[in-house]
Predict the structure.
Amino acid sequence: MEELLPLNLLVRGQHALIEHLVGQSEQVHRLEELGLRAGVPVEMLEPGIPCIVRIADQKLCFRDADLFSVMVRPGVAS
Amino acid sequence: MPAESPPQTLTVALLGNPNTGKSTLFSALCGVRQRTGNYPGVTVEKKLGHAEFHWQPFTIVDLPGSYSLAPRSPDEMIAVDVLLGRQNAVDEPDAVLCIVDASNLERNFYLVSQVLELGKPTVIALNMVDVARDRGMTIDVDLLRNRLHVPVIEIQANRKWGLEELKQALVDTLKVKQTPPESPFPELFQAEVTKLETHCEQEFETPLPRYLVERLLLDTSGYLSHGGIREINDSIQTAISAARQRLAGAGMPVPAVEAMARYQWIGQLLDGVVQRPSSRPKSFSDKVDRVLTHRIWGTTVFVLLMIFLFQAVFWIAGPASDLIDWLKSHASNFVAAALAEGALQSLIINGAIEGVGGVLVFLPQIFVLFLFIAILEDCGYMSRAAYLMDRLMSRVGLSGKSFIPLLSSFACAVPGIMSARVIENPRDRLITILVAPLMSCSARLPVYTLLIGAFIPSQRVLGVFGLQGLTMFAMYAIGIVTAVFVTLVLRRTILKGATPPFVMELPSYKLPGLGIVLYRMLDRGWAFVRRAGTLIFAVTILVWAAAYYPRYEAAENPSEQLRHSFLGRAGQLVEPAVRPLGWDWKIGCAAIASFPAREVVIATLGVIYNLGEDEDEQSETLRETLRSATWEGTDKRVFNVPVALSIMVFFALCAQCSSTLAVIKRETNSWRWPAFTFAYMTGLAYVAAFLTYQIGSLFVG
């Protein structure tokens, strides 16, 4: 198993599994409503800040914050 | 149709995630029979449409696109209140129509699971089945229907396909009673909701709908218990905290339990319903995005698009203003011939015609800019532009979502400020509203054109750039740079706080729908006419009166009259204050007159410098007159390059638009923010004009 890392450190085309969302529960809840949640496979399409990822069949533009990040476990292809 | 009593109008609430084709469906169902307004006290657009099916009339309430029915602000509360019949501005819906994107059912059903808990008859419109099919997905709609126990209708809103079946299903909801689905939540949680529900029943006169009780338990933002639901008292607060503690102890922390429960429910619901291909085919959108979101190519395309957009706006602005000037002069001549000289003639020529012309002259450019924005939005490009701009905007503490409101503000800040509603974060939205008036709107253009044409020499710099063009660019840049500066200061002082994470959906590209594009363009253009236009017109009349009265019978020319009018006296009063900017009292007059609406300045300058009526920025005579104007009693010229620049900088930064201030009041629901905007912009404008003149004079003088 690979190490956990923040979502925005994935390289272009890399697949990963979202492990957990770290941050204030209100913000976590909002992101979960958009489909960004634990247990979901994610693919990095355009790295950088912000980055573009694919989750399920949607593209999301994402930028984390000082007290918020999405931790992923790389290597799990969807 | 059997001759029973005439069918009652069926009220249907239309709801769905953003980018699911909800507006397309609404237009397809209602055509042009739609009305828009506002819900009282909030900044949510109230959109009602009318449709008919086999003599059955419908009223469709289009609710704002949303990922979830979890209100955390008054704006988000509207949808829930409408659905539960707690909003007096619309009838309680008889049924809910929930539109979902077939290619992304997992996320869309989050909202559906909330809607089903409301206990209203529900119909689900499965849109974009074609897109899902193209992606190689198969959806077993019958299985989905059987599991959900509510009608699921496949549609393609953009082709108006499946609408008859959809309307039939809506009519049928009144005849067939739907069995309420099971709650997605674990039993312990449901028991806590019931307990709280009973508690509320004892405390309140009218019972709170169960959905709201559940939300009360889930809403950790504190919005609902602190004002969102008025009746909440201390005893209920205590009960909520106790219930949350018990739930946390049982491994169901609030609010995480909601996402957990709903996604689990969705997983079971869709298991076997959706089949995805093992390998994902590369879609058209993916290929386009490789270019358009590319760091270099994407940025290049973006910059070219923006240049093209502004070129188009300028290109239309010239001929349009010529045409309107032509109309204005003909109308004025006609009135001058038909009416005797006097107050009425002057009122019509200098007040009414000038006022209408002053509004009309901006319409073509505003429509062109909003046409482009609407096309880019509807085809899906705008979210890519917001992604590209987020890199820049996040550095000053805003997000890419502020881009569209700021871009619109280059046409007119009024619709620009209104489009800041798309920004969910309240602080980002407020900052965007406060800096939007710094973007150089179309009303500043005539001032720049006149003064640049008159005082900036037409020569080349470094062989390629025209000096006049560069000056124009500098005026736009000064607004942008000031906006960046103001944002940075606000984020570090009165509006500080941690930056929230930023998430934005990038929808698939599609051909823009003609109806939607035209509707959005007209809607925003109309916002300008209604909010700005009426005010500009009224203000022009007021300024006319201030310059016309009191009458000075001994006046030998219009300039003499002006000196003795209310406006002229005010100008002389402020002269000591504007002298450090290099202005004489006449420029002071023009600046005062343009505080309610800045475009008045051209006409006022024309009158003040003794030309009588009907001047415009293209006019050679006005340019000539300004060039030859002298300080009173001397032969020293009033205008030189530093003076012209100081006026332009003042107009670039000053809050000279009462419509903008009125819209800020409306959107922020407080007088504090328009007052703040007025104070900071006017203060900055004065200081910047002072520096421009003083520093400029060192070089020229």
